[in-house]
Design brief:
- The protein is an alpha+beta fold and 470 residues long.
- It has helices spanning 2-13, 27-30, 50-63, 117-126, 143-148, 156-159, 194-198, 232-246, 258-267, 292-308, 321-332, 334-341, 356-370, 399-420, 436-442, 445-458, and strands spanning 18-19, 41-45, 67-70, 88-92, 99-103, 108-112, 129-130, 166-173, 178-181, 206-214, 216-217, 221-229, 250-257, 280-288, 314-317, 344-345, 348-350, 375-381, 386-392.
- It folds into four domains: 2-92, Uridine Diphospho-n-acetylenolpyruvylglucosamine Reductase, domain 2 (2-Layer Sandwich), CATH 3.30.43.10; 99-217, Uridine Diphospho-n-acetylenolpyruvylglucosamine Reductase, domain 3; 221-335, 2-Layer Sandwich (Alpha-Beta Plaits); 342-427, Alpha-Beta Plaits (2-Layer Sandwich).
- It contains 16 helices and 19 strands.
- Strands 12, 13, 14, 15, 16, 17, 18 and 19 form an eight-stranded antiparallel sheet that branches. Strands 5-6-10-8-9 form a five-stranded antiparallel sheet, sandwiched between helices. The chain has a four-stranded mixed sheet with strand order 1-2-4-3.
- A hairpin with a 4-residue loop joins strand 18 (375-381) and strand 19.
- Helix 1 runs antiparallel to helix 3 (50-63) and helix 13 (356-370) packs antiparallel against helix 14 (399-420).
- It starts with a helix and ends in a 12-residue tail after the last helix.
């Protein structure tokens, strides 16, 4: 069966785009970014367009072979790599990399799923517009993956998640049918919203091949600053002030605890940290449509009031684009510094902003009691309630052994507190393989049953990204 399928795939795509493990090193496709999941593919197939994707899906269905869609392979939950059976096809969408259309009057652009996010940003900017989705992996992640996981990033506070930035999709369904939903309409109440069904489904309901995205005006000015806070509650107070004074101009509001920046200082000493060690550091940014003078006046007024109210005790404002980029580079270097420090237990969680200080205080105390010496690396998008609440092994303890012995217990503590504070166990990374069992335990039985029914209806043979989500 496999030989017949491979022959049919080669006839459809050409020999150069059907990669077999006996002939090629497939490790870059088979291993996830964190190197936690390592699979073994029957083959890697690289279609060039939607018609070829549909042909691949049809052939896989005819032969009863499962498909694992993959974009830039930057996911953090093992959602885009095959299992270790050697029986699954890995469907790489990297060759679907064209910008099909930019429509300035409709403020939309239509791009293929394999387009790298940074390329989409640049294409929008060259046309005089902004595509605001922005995250650390933007140089390698793809639009298809961003939509399949409903990616968030650093500007959700103003522009929303990937879902809010997408008006339409083109999707190949499990039977090889192509659904063209690329209308680009902002108002369309003709039945169920199929777009939202596929966004965030992690390739389990269909294969996204193209998307129509929203464009926004380029800001005329950006202001970036670092602010020092004694407590996380002070950071929330600063956020409240920023929202009330700056409104929609508030684009980013990131928080970093002392250890997260200490790890950056240790592993990347060349990166300047203007404020020095503080319990909590906030990175905030305004994007202003009126100009630099107006933005600076807003910013200075905000920081002055925050100082007067005791929400911050120091601040550093970027005076140039290079200084602004350096501040963002600090924030974006935290995950890399964690990797340099060793394996760690990661949690991509969401909690209502008002409850985050209580959540962190309670969780910190419980983990310190149960796992003495463990090091908490907390950072993330405080403005939208999304924290990366991570735990490093104690100094002098082998990280791999610590994870092996304690990861399940640590997760139980953290996720119990997330649930107890009205939060979500996955804010922006998705479910993948990593959180599938946890989802089944913590999602309501009604929600799980509805999701399983949707999966059964759209993929009755279970061939699209099996073992993920549900």
């Amino acid at each position: 069966m496999s030989a017949a399928l491979i022959d049919a795939l080669r006839a459809t795509l050409g020999d150069a785009h059907v990669l077999l493990p006996a002939e090629h090193d497939l490790s870059g496709f088979e291993r996830d970014w964190r190197k936690r999941y390592v699979g073994r593919a029957l083959a890697v197939v690289r279609p060039a367009d939607t018609a070829q994707v549909a042909a691949v899906v049809t052939l896989a269905r005819e032969h009863g072979v499962a498909l694992v869609p993959q974009g830039g392979n930057t996911g953090l939950v093992g959602g885009g790599v095959p299992d270790d059976s050697g029986t699954q096809l890995l469907l790489s969408l990297q060759r679907l990399n064209r910008v099909r259309q930019i429509d300035p009057s409709n403020l939309t652009m239509t791009v293929e799923a394999g387009c790298v996010l940074q390329y989409v940003q640049q294409a929008a900017r060259e046309a005089g517009w902004l595509f605001p989705l922005s995250l650390a992996a933007e140089g390698s992640c793809t639009i298809g993956g961003n939509l399949a996981t409903n990616a968030g990033g650093t500007q959700v506070l103003r522009y929303g998640n990937a879902r809010e930035l997408c008006l339409g999709l083109e999707v190949v369904t499990a039977d090889g049918t192509v659904w063209d939903g690329l209308s680009g309409l902002r108002k369309d109440n003709t039945g169920y919203d199929l777009r939202d069904l596929f966004i965030g489904s992690e390739g389990t309901l269909g294969v996204i091949t193209a998307a129509t995205l929203k464009l926004h005006p380029l800001p005329r000015a950006r202001m970036t600053a670092l602010a020092a806070c004694d407590t996380l509650r002070d950071a929330v107070t600063l956020l409240d002030l920023a929202r009330s004074r700056c409104g929609a101009a508030l684009t980013g509001f990131e928080v970093m605890n002392a250890l997260s920046l200490a790890l950056v200082r240790k592993h990347f000493p060349q990166l300047a940290q203007p404020l020095g060690p503080r319990p909590w550091t906030v990175l905030l940014e305004l994007s202003d449509s009126e100009g630099e003078e107006h933005a600076r006046t807003q910013f200075e007024g905000l920081l002055e009031e925050a100082l007067e109210r005791g929400a911050i005790d120091d601040a550093a404002v970027a005076e140039s684009l290079s200084q602004s980029q350096a501040m963002w580079h600090l924030r974006e270097s935290i995950p890399l510094a964690q990797s340099e420090e060793g394996l760690n237990i990661k949690h991509d969680i969401a909690v209502p902003v008002s409850r985050i200080p209580d959540f962190v205080a309670r969780c910190d105390a419980l983990l310190a009691e149960r796992f003495p010496g463990s090091r908490l690396v907390n950072f993330g998008h405080l403005g939208d309630g999304n924290l990366h609440y991570n735990l490093q092994a104690p100094e002098g303890v082998t990280a791999a052994e610590f994870l092996r012995d304690h990861e399940a217990a640590v997760n139980e503590v953290v996720y119990d507190q997330v649930t107890g504070h009205g939060g979500s166990i996955s804010a922006e990374h998705g479910i993948g393989q990593l959180k599938r069992e946890e989802l089944a335990q913590r999602k309501s039985p009604v929600a799980m049953q509805l999701m399983r029914q949707i999966k059964q209806a759209l993929d009755p043979r279970g061939l699209l990204n099996p073992g993920r989500v549900v």
